[in-house]
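User: What would this chain look like folded?
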Amino acid sequence: MDKTGTVYIMSSPNRTTLYVGVTSDLCDRVWKHRTKFYPDSFSAKYNCVMLVYFQSYRLVTDAINEEKRLKGGRRKQKDDLIMSMNPGWVDLWDSVCGG
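Assistant: Here's the prediction, encoded as structure tokens.
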């Protein structure tokens, strides 16, 4: 059985810093960002605690390829992607993971 994957973007509350990641368990991974489970990580250091974008893929390999593409892209590309799904840059945690 193939494993699915989700590409996601976390933002700092003031929108200055973005973190792009991939996971097979979005809610668990976002919870770890929000609680700074890994206190020395990039997302903890830069307070990337808001889930502002996600896209699921049937194959985890497709998700990994998209993560790499986004990480290699410009900030404007990421901003445009977020705006296409979440124009208010609201934290999607509650609506996706139930708080």
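The beta strands are 5-11, 18-23, 50-57. If you want, I can go into more detail on any region.
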